[in-house]
Amino acid sequence: MKYLRLCPALLLLLLVGCMVGPRYQKPPVPVTPAYKEPLPDSF
Question: Rounded to two decimals, what is the model's pTM?
């Protein structure tokens, strides 16, 4: 019965742990046109 009391606490810690940290955004990376693949005709 001790485990039934721990389950909500562990779930809460898991959910709160996912919310901690900075909001990461990927920096834009320029791609040169020479490396881009041309689109197929049937696209």
Answer: 0.37
